[in-house]
Design brief:
Elements lengths: L6 H4 L6 H4 L12 E3 L1 H31 L7 H25 L1 E3 L13 E6 L5 E7 L10 E3 L3 H6 L7 E6 L2 E10 L1
Parallel strand pairs: 1-2, 4-5
Antiparallel strand pairs: 3-4, 3-7, 6-7
Length: 182
């Protein structure tokens, strides 16, 4: 869990449209990771779990596998080493994302922005869909969170209610109308 003096909490910044329009990059050379407060919390919880629980579990598995002797033909040892490498890689990745994260907030803007909740309708279809525009780290279409870098996200960003857009998807161009914006 983040502490009050944790650098990411002290350095929290709102998403600035001019700095991160759709690329998610800052001018510092590090890629900025755009997340909501909830998304940052999930990253921090995963990191804490990996460091405090999963590392210990894998270390215990390694100790047990080493106790079997001859490591050259010890599949348990190899498997535990591979899992340890995966966990350590994920820890490094999460630390980097947290360090470079910028908090996005839903804004009361007239156009679709990062953090906006937008209701759209595919042209020729009566079904309405509501999505929240988030950074790639948090994107999860099953939770109705789409990335600003996805075909649909790119198509609707900066658009207003009533506008029709075309999203260039892998299955071909899809047309949508923006119905509502929060």
């Amino acid at each position: 869990m983040a502490k009050k003096n944790d650098p990411i909490i002290e350095d929290e910044q709102e998403y600035n449209d001019d700095d991160f329009r759709s690329t998610g990059k800052s001018g510092t050379g590090d890629e900025t990771v755009l997340v909501t407060r909830q998304g940052l919390k999930k990253l921090q919880e995963e990191l804490e779990h990996l460091k405090s629980v999963r590392r210990k579990e894998v270390a215990d598995r390694l100790k047990e596998a080493i106790s079997y002797g001859d490591l050259s033909e010890n599949s348990e040892y190899e498997e535990a080493k591979n899992e340890q490498a995966f966990i350590e890689g994920r820890i490094i990745e999460l630390e980097h994302k947290i360090k470079n994260s910028k908090i996005i907030k839903g804004q009361h803007a007239q156009s679709v922005q990062m953090g906006s909740e937008v209701t759209i309708q595919k042209i020729g279809n009566k079904e309405k869909e509501t999505y929240i525009i988030v950074g790639t780290t948090e994107a999860d279409p099953f939770e109705h969170k789409i990335s600003n870098e996805s075909p649909l996200g790119k198509a609707i960003i900066e658009k207003t209610v009533g506008e029709r857009v075309t999203a260039e998807t892998p299955s071909g161009p899809q047309r949508y109308e923006i119905l509502a914006l929060k």
